[in-house]
Design brief:
Length: 425
């Protein structure tokens, strides 16, 4: 009789033990489906928090073309004019959302493939999907940064040893620079990482010639855009064309970007403030928000590339190269005013570099040590404790249960609002 009374209790205990064991097994070695579901859920939450209508600054730049002469950032507008005589804001916004969706799909599938290949890295990768860098990056939908990042991803995915890659690499660099000079701070780090990967593999001279030609192409195009002469008549013609062939308020102050080069942007940013004080203020304000993710992935890259067989000089050179690749976007704050954009791009680029390194490397040893767990928890805490207060154009972050989205789609359903929403300045 006593034995029968204890049977339900023992079965309940075994059930609880099994559940605890299953939860512990998922946390220590998560399945592929749980990794994918977690990443998609975090990406969806980040999108709901940050998505907004593309602004008029980016829409105005989409009206630039080569019709009145060669100008920087004119390729995108030239391509659009091949298919439509005038640019509507609706078309521009839909294209911006479409590029963002394609980019998200590519990054998700790439992250999933890398997570399957390297069993100890899934949770290290998942931090990216709720980071402040991704929030701000999603909010810049419509900017040509997204096309530049997709071209950089294409460069990263090219095989290291095929001759076709040797031809495609410099061509992609030329395409990216023709779209926007921000590609320099996105594509150049990928070239640095491919060089480090190639140095660890025995290869033909063709691949090294390809890397050299890609470096020359990306640097040469940047210098061309820096010193290309832009006349006042050219700018006046572009302004008139944008006004006549678009249905949105054109940002006329945007056209001054065509005249300014490195020296002009430097004078605009720091001509009125001492450089040390301004840099310290920027790092203090934005560093606590965006830098933890970049430094975390830089540390992982150092763990991947540095080997005991390397000499002290080799380790120093590799560390300098990786730090330059990850932090290069932040250097753009010296010549451009949108500081948060470049701090967030640093996190995006660092994540792409980590995926690139893991993509081209065989499965790495497990990182099941206390330091890696502490680092993951620390970066996750920084992501949650220091979210960006404002996004692009001082847009606030949406909060759960995201009533602004519910109200907007309810207005679209009743016909009192349009999709896409009205642009901001």
């Amino acid at each position: 009789m006593k034995k029968n009374q204890t049977e339900p209790r023992s079965s309940c205990t075994s059930l609880n033990t099994g559940l605890l064991a299953a939860i512990k097994r998922q946390l220590s070695a998560p399945s592929e489906s749980s990794i994918a579901l977690c990443g998609l859920l975090l990406l969806l939450i980040s999108t709901l928090r940050a998505i907004h209508a593309p602004n008029l600054w980016s829409a105005t730049q989409a009206t630039w073309s080569y019709h009145y002469g060669f100008v920087k950032r004119g390729l995108y507008g030239e391509i659009l004019q091949l298919f439509t005589p005038g640019l509507t804001y609706r078309l521009f916004a839909l294209l911006g959302y479409a590029f963002l969706a394609v980019e998200a799909i590519i990054i998700c599938f790439w992250s999933y493939a890398v997570a399957r290949k390297h069993a100890s890295y899934p949770w290290l990768l998942s931090i990216f999907f709720f980071s402040p860098a991704l929030l701000f990056y999603i909010n810049t939908a419509g900017y040509l940064d997204h096309l530049c990042v997709m071209i950089a991803i294409a460069m990263a995915l090219l095989p290291l040893r095929q001759k076709a890659s040797a031809i495609a690499l410099p061509l992609l660099c030329l395409l990216g620079m023709a779209l926007h000079e921000v590609f320099f701070i996105v594509g150049f780090p990928v070239l640095i990482l491919r060089t480090l990967l190639k140095l660890q593999l025995p290869g033909s001279r063709t691949s090294y010639y390809s890397l050299a030609s890609a470096f020359i192409a990306i640097t040469g195009m940047y210098l061309v855009f820096e010193y290309i002469p832009i006349s006042a008549q050219q700018i006046a013609d572009l302004r008139h064309s944008a006004h006549m062939h678009s249905d949105f308020p054109v940002r006329y102050d945007n056209f001054e970007v065509l005249r300014r080069g490195l020296r002009g942007n430097w004078a605009l940013n720091f001509g009125h403030l001492p450089i040390p004080e301004s840099l310290f203020a920027l790092l203090k304000i934005h560093g606590a928000v965006y830098l933890p993710l970049t430094l975390f992935y830089l540390g992982l890259l150092l763990c991947i590339f540095l080997r005991p067989a390397h000499s002290a000089g080799q380790k120093t050179l590799i560390a300098i190269a990786l730090a330059t690749a990850c932090l290069l976007p932040i250097a753009s704050i010296l010549i451009a005013w949108d500081y948060r954009r470049f701090f967030s791009l640093s996190g995006i680029v660092s994540y792409i570099l980590l995926l690139t390194a893991l993509h081209h490397r065989p499965p790495l040893p497990s990182l099941k040590n206390r330091r890696s767990h502490i680092a993951v928890c620390l970066v996750a805490f920084m992501n949650l404790a220091f979210p960006p207060a404002l996004l692009m154009d001082n847009v606030p972050i949406s909060r759960f249960p995201y009533m602004n989205h519910w109200q907007y789609w309810e207005q679209v359903w009743h016909g009192t609002a349009t999709f896409p929403p009205s642009p901001v300045k």
